[in-house]
Design brief:
The structure holds two protein chains of two kinds.
Chain A lengths: L3 H26 L6 H4 L18 H55 L6
Chain B lengths: L4 H36 L15 H10 L11 H18 L17 H9 L2 H11 L3 H32 L4 H6 L10 H17 L11 H4 L9 H26 L10 H20 L7 H30 L1
Classes of the chains: A mainly alpha, B mainly alpha.
Chain lengths: 118, 323
Amino acid sequence: MLPDYFNIVFFFMLGIAFVGAAFVTSWLIRPRAPSQAKNAPYECGEVIKGNSRVQFNIRYYLVTLIFVIFDVEILFTIPWAVVFRQMGAAAYFEMVFFIGVLAIGLVYAWKKGALEWL
Amino acid sequence: MNIPWLALLSLLLKGVAILAFFAVNAMFLIWLERKISAKIQNRLGPMVVGPHGALQLIADTVKLLLKENIVPAEADRLIWWLAPFFVAVPTVAAFLCIPFSQEWIVADLNVGILFICSITSLCVLGVFMAGWGSNNKYSLLGGMRSAAQIVSYEVPLLLSVLVVIMEAGTLSMQGIVHAQELGWFCLKPNVLLAFLIYMISATAEVNRVPFDIPEAESELVSGYHTEYSGMKFSMFFLAEYANLFIISAVAATLFLGGWLGPLRPSVFWFLIKVYGIISFLMWIRWTLPRVRMDQMMSFAWKVLTPLALINVLVTGWLLAGKG
C-alpha cells in the first residue's frame, strides 16, 4: 500500500504537469510578434501615468490581521470538534471560554473601527 | 525497497480520469453558464459550433492555444508566470478527496474536509500574485480586493464547516456521508443555518455575483487577470469553474447527504445534487446586481462571523446535551 500522504504529493505533481503541458503546447504553436505598444500595461488606451505599484489602504492590513487570528482559532477548534462528544461537558465549557475570549477580541476590533470599510 | 507498482499504476489511472473529468466538467459548466445566461436574457446563446453550440468550447480552446503570449512591460516576470500555477494546481489537488460515490474516491484521507479547505484557500496566493505581478493598476486593485474578500469570507465558511464536523465527529469525507445515513444534515435547524452561511461565503470565495467586486468589469476592466492572455488566461478561467464544482461538491457532501440516494448508481445522485447547486448559483449570478465593497466586508465580519460563532456554540450545547 502507498502511504496516504503520497496521494497528495502525486496530485500536486499531476496538477503541475497538467498546467505545464498546456503552457508547453501553447508555447510550441503560438505566434510571437511583440511590440512596445502591445506590451504596455492596459490602461484603457491612455498613455500610462505613474507606477502601478501604488500604496494601498491600511484597512487591508487590519482585515488580514483579524483573519489570521480567527484562522488559527478555527485550527485549534477542529480537533476539539472531532472528539468533544467523548470528552463530556467540561470540554464544551472550555470551548465556550475560548470562543468567548475571541468574541471579546472581535468586539474590541469592532469598537475600535477596524471593521469599518469607509 | 519494495515499490508497490500496482498501486502506483492505479493511482496514475485515477489521476488521469480526474484530469479528464476536470477538463470536461469545466467545458460543460462554461457552456451551461452561457446557455443559462442566454435563457435569462431572452437570447439563444452559442448555437453555431455543434448542436446547440455544444462544441463551442473546443473551438475556443484551440483559439486560446494559438493566442500570443503578451508579457506586460516591467511585469514581475517570475511571480507573473507562477500565478496561474498557484490558482490551477490546488483545484486539481482538491479533487483527491471528493467522494463521487462509495467506491469512486481517489483517496479517502482521514483529514479530507480539512485538506480540501486548506488547499482551496491557496488560490488566494495565486490571485494576489497575478494582481501584483502584472504591473497594472486594475490588476493590483482587483488582487487586493480579492485577497481581502477571500480571507474575510474564509472565517464564516470554516465555522459553518465546523458545525458539520461536530455533528459527524469525523473529518473524512466518506465518514461525513455515512453519518448522514439516518437523515441529511441540512434537515437539522442549526446545520441548515450553517448551510446558508456556507453557501453565502462560498459564493464570495469563488468571486461570483453578487460578490464579484474583484472583477467588477465596470470599474476594474477584468480585475487580477486583466493582463493575462492565451493559455494563462484559460488557466484562471478553468480554475474558476473547477472551484465552482468543488464548493458545490463540498456543499452536497456536507449538507445534502453526498452520494446517498434511494436507487443505484449513487454517483448519479451525487452529480444531480452538485449540478443542482451549480445551476442555482448561476441563476443567482444572472439575476442579482453586485453589492458594494464596504457592505460586503461589513456583512462578513459583523453579521456572518458572529452568527457562525453562536451557531457553533449552540450546536455544541445541543450535542453535549445528547451525549
